[in-house]
Amino acid sequence: MIVAVDADYRESHSIVACVAFRAWADAEPAYERVVRVPGAPAPYQPGKFYLRELPCLLAGIRVLDALPRVIVVDGYVRLSRTKPGLGAHLHDALFGKVAVIGVAKTEFHGAPAATVLRGESKKPLFVTAAGMSLEEATEAVRSMHGEHRLPTLLARADRLCREA
């Protein structure tokens, strides 16, 4: 199973959405989970986004039917060759048992990311990975369902947590 995860922050809690699917080209999820994480979220710190998001993502992963083989996060796996990002911290928290692909909409200068153009978009997505090759991760994101820049099921995870 592959799972796309995303989080949204409110004043007193956070929302995590998990969208599970079987194959990269799937248009529909196998199942979805939305989790409310109590407590005010940690403040945002540039370059340390994982301090805010990682506890939320782990709470969402705990309610999945099973540990997926790949998790797709909204963000970077690595911020530089030596500095881990959200995806690397998640990969480590799961003891390297799950590959993690980071898909970011904005460029982080210095991140070892590949670019993927989808649909008619002139703006690329920035892809990073842990537990699989960057080439494999890039091809996976490129092959995901949807005509737009953001693949259908990644957009679904984003929408679920914002609308919850």
Q: Over the alpha carbons, how many angstroms does the gyration radius reach? A: 14 Å
Task: Give the tally of structural domains.
Answer: 1
Low-confidence stretches: none
H-E order:
EEEHEHEEEHH
> Which CATH-level-2 architecture?
2-Layer Sandwich
Quantity of strands, as a count: 7
Overall shape:
globular
Largest sheet descriptor: 7 strands, mixed
CATH superfamily: archaeoglobus fulgidus dsm 4304 superfamily
Describe this structure in words.
The protein has helices at 50-62, 86-93, 134-143, 152-163, and strands spanning 2-9, 13-21, 31-38, 70-74, 99-104, 114-116, 125-130. With 164 residues, it is an alpha/beta fold. It has a single domain (2-163), classed as archaeoglobus fulgidus dsm 4304 superfamily (archaeoglobus fulgidus dsm 4304 fold), CATH 3.30.2170. Helix 1 crosses helix 2. The mean pLDDT is 95.
Topology summary:
Layout: E1 2-9, E2 13-21, E3 31-38, H1 50-62, E4 70-74, H2 86-93, E5 99-104, E6 114-116, E7 125-130, H3 134-143, H4 152-163
Parallel strand pairs: 1-4, 4-5
Antiparallel strand pairs: 1-2, 2-3, 5-7, 6-7
